[in-house]
Specification:
This protein has a five-stranded mixed beta sheet. By secondary structure, it is of the alpha/beta class. A hairpin with a 4-residue loop joins strand 4 and strand 5.
């Protein structure tokens, strides 16, 4: 099939539905974007950023990659981050992982998928840093869940270490960095208990978040996804 007609039809229905509710919506949207939020999340198809937080186009700036990783040498991510912070002047950056992340599971189990293994090495660095804490958990599913959480905390720290964010704070820009995790099993976001708003508090908030996360039990009541 060379033309995906059903997707074009869905697009027309979606656009018509919005215009029925707000005839001037797309006219306003075409003139500017002024989101307050940058979402750094996983590329997983089950984690659609705008829908999860019920925001319309133009309200959420988004960067996604496998396992929501923030790497200091990833110019794709850095370009998004710089544009969001310096041009769009977003007020909040949310690093959002999700339970049952296939990339995190592959990193934990050291599964071989070729090229992507080089990318997942960043998650394996997190795995290795907290190997003792992960080993104390009773089963592999709990280890995957905990590594999903720890990976979010580490990537929040990477965002805060970045010169783009540090410079924004140094010049007094109002900017907060949050760590959240999404449960595909119930559709709910959970705050992992860290929100960094300045250079002076990064280390203490990061350390506290890691300690509290490792100390508490992994949730067992939610539906697990793989």
């Amino acid at each position: 099939m060379r033309v995906l007609n059903h997707l074009f039809e869905k697009n027309r229905e979606w656009a018509d539905g919005i215009k029925q509710q707000d005839p001037e919506f797309f006219t306003r949207l075409s003139r500017q974007q002024a989101p307050e939020y940058l979402w750094i999340g996983c590329a997983d198809s089950r984690v659609p950023a705008n829908q999860i937080v019920d925001l319309m186009p133009g309200e959420l700036f988004v960067h996604r990659n496998v396992a929501n990783v923030v790497v200091h040498t990833d110019f794709n991510c850095l370009s998004v981050l710089q544009f969001a912070v310096e041009k769009l002047k977003v007020k909040h950056i949310m690093v959002v992982g999700h339970y049952g992340c296939g990339g995190v599971a592959a990193a934990l189990k050291d599964e071989g998928f070729g090229l992507i293994n080089n990318w997942l090495r960043h998650v394996q660095d997190v795995r290795d840093r907290y190997a003792d804490a992960l080993a104390r958990l009773p089963n592999e599913n709990d280890q995957i869940d905990r590594l999903c959480e720890l990976n979010v905390v580490e990537q929040v720290n990477h965002v805060c270490q970045n010169t783009i964010v540090r410079d924004a704070w140094a010049r007094g820009q109002n900017l907060s960095v949050h760590g959240w995790i999404y449960d595909v099993g119930d559709g709910l976001l959970r705050d992992l208990g860290l929100c960094v708003t300045g250079n002076d508090e990064r280390d203490s908030i990061y350390s506290s978040a890691v300690e509290e996360l490792i100390a508490r039990p992994v949730r067992t009541s939610r539906t697990r996804q793989s």
